[in-house]
Amino acid sequence: MITEEVVKIITDLLGVDESKVTFDARLIEDLNADSLDAVELAMTLEEHFKIQVSDEEVEHMSTVGEIAETIKLRRPDLEI
């Protein structure tokens, strides 16, 4: 599932407890990510899911759920 894989990637990348990485968790406000983390996360997600995400889309992916939904748009073969 997309969400489970996103949670694992975020947990590994940001070093946060998995229990904090919920569907509604905001990257900056709740998980203390900064702009560099966001860029690294976008690159990791693109590589992991074999997708391309524009810079504009990255700016609008502020929650775990929004990230999962964006991936779902690119990979309709996967479940959220």
Structural class of the secondary elements?
A: mainly alpha
Q: What is the strand content? A: under 5%
The main pleated sheet reads as:
none
Q: Number of helical segments?
A: 4
| Topology as a string of helices (H) and strands (E) | HHHH
Mean pLDDT: 94
CATH class label: Mainly Alpha
CATH homologous superfamily placement? ACP-like
Label the CATH architecture: Orthogonal Bundle
Rough shape? globular
Distance between the termini: 5 Å
User: What is the domain tally?
Assistant: 1
Question: What is the fold's blueprint, element by element?
Answer:
Blueprint: H1 2-14, H2 35-49, H3 55-60, H4 64-74
Walkthrough of the structure:
Helix 1 packs across helix 2 and helix 1 crosses helix 4 (64-74). The chain has 80 residues and is mainly α. It is built from 4 helices and no strands. It is globular, with a radius of gyration of 11 Å. The chain has a single domain (2-74), classed as ACP-like (Non-ribosomal Peptide Synthetase Peptidyl Carrier Protein, Chain A), CATH 1.10.1200.10.
